[in-house]
Write a structure and sequence with these properties.
Two copies of one chain form a homodimer. The first copy, chain A, is mostly helical. In chain A, helix 1 crosses helix 2 and helix 5 packs across helix 6. Chain A is elongated and about 65 Å long. At the A-B interface, helix 5, helix 6, helix 7, helix 8 and helix 9 of A face helix 5, helix 6, helix 7, helix 8 and helix 9 of B. The structure holds a DNA duplex.
Chain lengths: 199, 199
DNA sequence: TCGTCCATCTTACTGGGAGTAGGTTACCAG
DNA sequence: CTGGTAACCTACTCCCAGTAAGATGGACGA
């Protein structure tokens, strides 16, 4: 690795390094199949250190997820600044998302793994990070739409996020679908609605 | 339990019973937290029997998932027969879905857990059952829409499924959202598109 | 009624990974 | 040079998925 024999590194640095390695291992092997011993060894440190800093395997995964989600948020948020109108903002956001999942597969794979935590004590934490995601959409929408009904707007945000997540997973099976094409598909349904397609 | 001391039951019956119990335990404790020993004990049988019939913990979960998915499919399929037009069919299907997730929480909880299998050897199996789900939508759509582009239709189906899944999860946090209301929200975005809402 | 066969079922184990108790060592401050 | 503490380690426990090898009930032919 980069730091050949270096030991005794400050807490913050060590944590970053651990997250980096864990991200790799979790996304390669999958959450269940990954072992804390393996991660510890790759980091070049003993297992109790992982527990010192992250308390549990779940905690480590959550840290990775938060990291990736922060990046995703940053990327999509940046993409929408300076959008001309609602349609443009939506399209830019979608494109940024689909580019992200193609270029940063590892991070995206991790985000999908949060589902593995359903039914665990950390489920509340997951809820929190998820809200962050939908809030971004909700905020975007409230800036461009008339929303008499808050609940309705929230539902729409969840709807969009879910749809894109699934479409992204689908894209993994279709190498020929570029981010641009995926964006087009998404916009087509999302913006125009299915009504236009009825025969 | 119902069968007090009865032993030595034929394979098919025992399997059904195991699936029933496992469905209960998986949805209560969550997949990771559930133990095969516990399930075996509740069934009133020893652990190797579970492995005899389902090979692995994952296998048992998959059996439960297939069961639940079959029910869901049946329900939604039935709902759409005799629909007047595309809009009606879509609305009926959505309503049936949202009713299902409210009335059969246990089964729905299970379906969500399939995500926990991502990255495991059973991922292919999961893909298969998922395809079943999207095919239903795709078939429904192909019956009512003009689809010059197959890929596009497939994408749209994935899109709808993902959106509804997420919306359903959101509904769990909002007790006040009835299946009828959820359907309305979904139809509103899905059918009319967001364009109508732009200010 | 009595074997005999085999599907159903059991006890008793292994292996591996999550999580921990308690001690050790390098670095920094004074 | 000398505490003091943050970073670190060895060496465990316990739990749980998965398995080997054998026991048993009962259907069915004679």
């Amino acid at each position: 690795m980069t730091t050949a024999k270096r030991k005794r590194m400050p807490r913050a640095d060590r944590m970053r390094q651990m997250i980096e390695v864990a991200e790799q291992v979790f996304s390669e092997r999958g959450y269940a199949a990954a072992s804390m011993d393996e991660i510890a060894e790759l980091v070049g440190v003993s297992k109790p250190m992982l527990y010192e800093y992250f308390n549990s395997k779940e905690g480590l995964l959550l840290a990775c997820i938060r990291e990736s989600r922060a990046v995703l948020r940053e990327v999509t948020e940046q993409a929408t600044v300076g959008a001309a109108d609602a349609e443009d903002a939506l399209r830019r956001g979608l494109l940024a998302f689909f580019v992200f999942i193609r270029e940063r597969r590892q991070a995206w794979s991790l985000l999908r793994h949060e589902m593995a935590l359903i039914g665990t004590p950390a489920a509340d934490e997951v809820e929190e990070t998820r809200r962050q995601q939908t809030d971004l959409i909700a905020a975007l929408m409230s800036g461009h739409f008339d929303n008499g009904d808050d609940l309705k707007a929230e539902a729409a945000a969840e709807f969009v996020v879910g749809a894109c997540e699934r479409l992204a997973i689908w894209c993994e099976r279709h190498e020929e679908v570029t981010p641009e094409l995926a964006t087009e598909y998404a916009m087509d349904v999302l913006w125009s609605g299915l009504r236009d397609r009825a025969r």
